[in-house]
Structure formats: structure tokens, C-alpha cells
Specification:
Blueprint lengths: L3 H10 L38 H11 L1 H21 L5 E17 L4 E21 L3 H68 L4 H35 L26 H11 L1 H22 L4 E13 L2 E14 L7 H67 L5 H36 L2 H8 L4
Antiparallel strand pairs: 1-2, 2-3, 3-4
Helix pairs in contact: 2-4, 3-4, 4-5, 4-7, 4-9, 6-8, 7-8, 8-9, 9-10
Length: 463
């Protein structure tokens, strides 16, 4: 058939999808942006004892939350390409054979005759929007702003994943320290019981002291069992935080020394100003304002005329014989006159959305300032509490040692020993809690400011 070469030509003129290339403009990013300069590229989990920065790097690669957010970034980038496609002409090709059978009946004797033919048409059409008073430009601006918002949201999600990992790591370290403190309490209670048991055997005391000592020892052992159970739970939570199964056994390096909370030196006012520059959610809210403003421009320009140019050429054939060729070219001016007030309400809705996004951005900014301030106060309180907790543990240890020595020498009451022992156990737990609060409050404040990635980077050389 003579039309077959034309069909091949029309097919070749269309974009080739078979190649599987879905980003001809190179708009869709392939690699995730890091949250800090020191973040390592994704890869196999290092075969070594993992530090906190290692865990954060693993979490940023494996945690599903970052994958979900990154997919949104890639989708937003693809939508930029969709919007930019309006700047190019559209070309379409159609080809279609139609089989026609005609039968004719003649005379009373039902004589008949018939014919079969193939009617074929092929058409190539081009259409291009020549002028539209800025609708396309506004839609492209909106898509680019949406991409910026998606990137900022990804950065915010990544920082949230980092904070979750840091918190899970600190929780595990606190539970390990709690277990260590519980072991020391058990050892102290065991020694107190041994003294009471020895004096009971010597007949210098009644059995009441021995029973009280046994009760205290059992309570300390119960606390230790519970602490070890909490460790198992914390390990599972840390594994899940970095995107691994909860039963994964992680080889963890020694915890970095407690920092001096350098963020406190900047002051709350400076940190709030820093947050307004660094926080990804504030950047996302500003990008959302740009999206709304661009959509408002697009809605307004959609109510204005457009100019289109079009061209087409078609060939028709019957069986193997070309029977005709027709071509067209033209310019069309489209002027919207009335659409049931649709455009007016579309503009009103777009204006209201712009006002809403502006208010949301201000709300986000104010909430960020409050979060930074409360985080600053929490860290300051935690640091001061740690100083008091260290003083408390020193005095509680000295008092407990004195009470135990006096009881061993037979000049002290067992009630005094139990009170001192309980105070020492409480002081140990308060010290663990105070250290945990400093580490976690420091991470929370860094996240509130928008620089938790830099805070993690500082730990890379803190070993």
C-alpha cells in the first residue's frame, strides 16, 4: 500500500516512548541533597562499630519517610516539565484503515452483486499556542515554586529523621546508663544485705533488719530486670529509626563525650533569627506563597484572549489508490466572553489561597520562633540540672558509704542505711536523666534552628 511509508514517517515524527527516557529535559534530580556537608553517600552499612553520625547517615538513606518525601520532589520536578511543554507545539498523527463491504440486490430473482474496499486516511496535525497573556509563564512559575516547596519539605523530613535517630540513640544510651546505675544499686544493696545477714548470724540484731535488707535487694534486682528490658526495646526502636528490622543487632561505638551545649552561647534572639534563615519548613511556606501567587496570575490571564496557530495535512486512499490530499493552516483568536462567572470565582479562590498561604507562612514563622525559644530554655535548664545532679550524686554516694560503714561497725541504724541507699539510687537515676536531657535538648534545639545536620557533623570528630 502506498500509504505505508507515510505512516512510518508520521510515527517517526512523534516522541519515542519505547526508549524509556522519561526526562528529556533533564529536570528530575537523581541524587538526594544532603542535610550537611559531612553526610556520607548512601551505600552498604559500614562493617564497624557505628557512631551516632553513622546511624544518622544510614537512616537518611533507609528510612521510608525520606523515600516518600524524595518521590514528591521528583514528581514536582516532572510537573515542571509538564508546565514547560505548553511552550512547544503539539504534533499528532492519525492513521486508520476502514474495511467497507457493499452488497446490492437486483430483480425479483434475488440476483446480487457486491464489492469490498479498504478506505484509508492518514493525517498529520500541528497546533501551537502563540500568545496567551502570561498563562503559560505563570503555570511554569507555579510548578517551579512547587518544586522548591517539595525540596524544602524533603529537607524538613530529612532533619526530622535525623532527630528521630538521635533521640532513639540517646534513649538507648540512657537505658544502658540506667542499667549500669541499677547494677551499682544491686551491688550496694547486696553488700548491705550481707552486713545485715552477718550481724543476724552473730546475734547482734533481730531478723527485721535482715528482712528489710532482703526486700531492698529484691527491689533493686527488679529495677535492674526492667532496665534491661527497656534496653531491648530501645535497641529495636533505634534499628527501625534507621530503616532496619527491629530485631537487628547493631554494633555501636562508645558514645561521644557530652558537649558544652555551644548553642546556648548564641542567645535565644540570635537563634530565632538563624531559624528564619535555615528552617526548611519556613522555606517551604514561602515557596507555597509563590505557588499561590503564580496560580493567581494564571487565573487572571486565563480570562484574556489567546492566539493559536495550527496546520494539518491529510491523505486518503481507497485500496491501493490515493484518492485525495488536503491541507490546512490557520490562526485562531479565542476571546472568552461568558462562562457562568466561572473565571471570576476562580480568580477569587486563587486570591483567597494566596492570602491563606501568606497567613500560614507567618504562622509557621511564629511557631518556629516559639519552638526555638522553648528549646533554648529547655537546654539551659537541662545543663543547670546536670550540674546539680553531679553534685547530688557525690553527696549521696558519700552519705551512703558513711551509713553503710556505720551500720557495719554496729553504730548505725539500718533505717538510716536504707534511706541513704534509696537516696543514692535516686541520685544515680537523676544523673542519667540529666545527661539524657542535655543530649536530647541539644538535638531538639539544633533541629528547631534548622541545623541538626551541622550538629551531627560536629560529632564526627568528637570521638
Amino acid at each position: 500500500m502506498r500509504l505505508f511509508p507515510l505512516v512510518l514517517l508520521l510515527t517517526a515524527s512523534a516522541p519515542t516512548l519505547a526508549a524509556g527516557h522519561d526526562d528529556p529535559r533533564g529536570l528530575i534530580p537523581a541524587a538526594r541533597p544532603p542535610i550537611s556537608a559531612g553526610q556520607r553517600a548512601c551505600g552498604a552499612i559500614p562493617a564497624k562499630a557505628l557512631t551516632l553520625p553513622d546511624l544518622v547517615d544510614i537512616a537518611l538513606c533507609n528510612n521510608p519517610a525520606t523515600a516518600v518525601s524524595w518521590a514528591s520532589v521528583r514528581a514536582a520536578a516532572a510537573n515542571v516539565g509538564v508546565a514547560q511543554s505548553a511552550n512547544l507545539p503539539t504534533i499528532s498523527a492519525t492513521f486508520g484503515p476502514v474495511l467497507t463491504r457493499t452488497d446490492a440486490f437486483a430483480g425479483s430473482a434475488f440476483g446480487s452483486g457486491g464489492a469490498t474496499e479498504v478506505d484509508t486516511t492518514a493525517r498529520l496535525a500541528l497546533s501551537y499556542l502563540l500568545f496567551d497573556f502570561g498563562t503559560r509563564a505563570a503555570q511554569i512559575d507555579a510548578s517551579r515554586a512547587s518544586q522548591r516547596a517539595a525540596l524544602a519539605q524533603f529537607a524538613d523530613t530529612a532533619q526530622g529523621v535525623a532527630l528521630t535517630t538521635v533521640t532513639a540513640f540517646n534513649t538507648l544510651q540512657a537505658d544502658l546508663a540506667t542499667a549500669t546505675a541499677a547494677e551499682a544499686t544491686v551491688a550496694f544493696a547486696q553488700k548491705s544485705y550481707d552486713f545485715a545477714d552477718g550481724r543476724k548470724r552473730a546475734g547482734t540484731i533481730t531478723g527485721a533488719d535482715r528482712l528489710q535488707a532482703l526486700t531492698s535487694l529484691s527491689q533493686a534486682q527488679l529495677t535492674l530486670i526492667q532496665a534491661r528490658g527497656n534496653i531491648a526495646t530501645s535497641r529495636a526502636q533505634l534499628a527501625v529509626a534507621i530503616g532496619l528490622p527491629p530485631e537487628t543487632l547493631l554494633d555501636l561505638a562508645a558514645v561521644a563525650p557530652l558537649s558544652a551545649a555551644p548553642l546556648l552561647k548564641s542567645g535565644a534572639r540570635a537563634l530565632i533569627a538563624q531559624a528564619e534563615r535555615l528552617r526548611p519548613d519556613i522555606a517551604a511556606s514561602r515557596a507555597n506563597i509563590d505557588v499561590a501567587d503564580a496560580n493567581l496570575r494564571a487565573a487572571r490571564s486565563a480570562a484574556l484572549p489567546t492566539v493559536n496557530v495550527s496546520a494539518s495535512d491529510g491523505i486518503s486512499a481507497v485500496d491501493r489508490n490515493v484518492t485525495g490530499n488536503s491541507g490546512q493552516i490557520g490562526v485562531t483568536l479565542s476571546v472568552p466572553i461568558f462562562s457562568g462567572f466561572n473565571r471570576r470565582y476562580t480568580i477569587a479562590a486563587a486570591r483567597a489561597e494566596s492570602e491563606r498561604q501568606t497567613a500560614l507562612a507567618e504562622q509557621t514563622r511564629q511557631q518556629a520562633g516559639l519552638t526555638v525559644y522553648t528549646g533554648y530554655v529547655a537546654l539551659d535548664t537541662a545543663v543547670k540540672s546536670l550540674v546539680s545532679a553531679r553534685d547530688l550524686i557525690a553527696s549521696a554516694q558519700a552519705n551512703a558509704d558513711l551509713a553503710q560503714g556505720r551500720y557495719k561497725a554496729g553504730v548505725g541504724l539500718f533505717t538510716d542505711l536504707l534511706n541513704a541507699q534509696s537516696a543514692l539510687a535516686s541520685a544515680r537515676q537523676q544523673l542519667v536523666t540529666a545527661e539524657f536531657n542535655v543530649r536530647t535538648s541539644d538535638a531538639n534545639l539544633a533541629r528547631a534552628v534548622g541545623g541538626i545536620g551541622d550538629a551531627v557533623d560536629e560529632l564526627r570528630g568528637a570521638r
